[in-house]
Design a protein that fits this description.
This protein is of the alpha/beta class. It has a single domain, classed as Dihydrofolate Reductase, subunit A (3-Layer(aba) Sandwich), CATH 3.40.430.10. The protein is built from five helices and ten strands; from the N terminus they run ββααβαββαβαββββ. It has an eight-stranded mixed sheet with strand order 5-4-3-6-1-7-10-9. Strands 2-8 form a two-stranded antiparallel sheet. The protein is globular. 33% of the residues are buried.
């Protein structure tokens, strides 16, 4: 069975974006980016990969699941097919497939059912939970691995890593931690 991996950048105080949904406070340069490009190139948007001349092998992920606001973050730059190298599922009950492009699937299916279906597929690659916080909270019981790129910033408010009023208790064990000169620390946790 495949794993669901929540691979996301977060501030020291646990926010994945500003209150408006912006993530421009996160460090976009530094040695952590070099590691990201080398180890997780499939997590970079298609336009960035094209600009760098990279064709990812999708060694870790072949499928990405995200909420509408995460998907729509690229709209101001005209990006409506952010990860063309992956199978893309956008969870939204309010938006239509016509608002996306390429092979993006806008799913009205319950996110928990969608994630369970994707995890049951035969594949050695993980399913990437890209964001956002509401979706992460909704599917928390199916998250098998957390990879948190903790940036040395405080936001004070914004979209939390898990945004929900629901109480979810899950234990994880630390697999690895890496500190970068940029100040970013990448922590990987496996569900206990």
């Amino acid at each position: 069975m495949r794993r669901l991996t929540y691979f996301v950048a977060t501030s020291l105080d646990g926010f994945i974006a500003s209150p408006e949904g912006a993530f421009d406070a996160f460090l976009m340069r530094g040695d952590h980016i070099e590691a990201l490009v080398r180890e997780f190139p499939e997590t970079l948007p298609g336009p960035a990969l094209k600009a760098m001349g990279i064709s990812p092998d999708n060694a870790t992920f072949d499928t990405v699941v995200m909420g509408w606001n995460t998907f729509a973050a690229g709209f101001p730059e005209g990006v409506r097919d952010p990860y063309p190298h992956l199978r893309q599922f956008v969870c939204s009950r309010r938006h239509a497939a016509e608002e996306a492009s390429g092979e993006v699937v806008v799913s009205k299916e319950d996110p928990l059912d969608l994630v369970r279906r994707l995890k049951s597929e035969s594949s050695e690659r993980d399913v990437w939970l890209c964001g956002g916080g509401l979706l992460a909270a909704h599917v928390a019981e199916e998250i098998d691995r957390l990879v948190l790129k903790v940036h040395p910033i405080l936001l004070g408010a914004g979209i939390p890593l898990f945004a929900s009023n629901a109480y979810v208790r899950r234990a994880f064990r630390l697999e690895s931690t890496r500190a970068f000169a940029s100040g970013v620390v990448m922590n990987s946790y496996q569900r206990a």
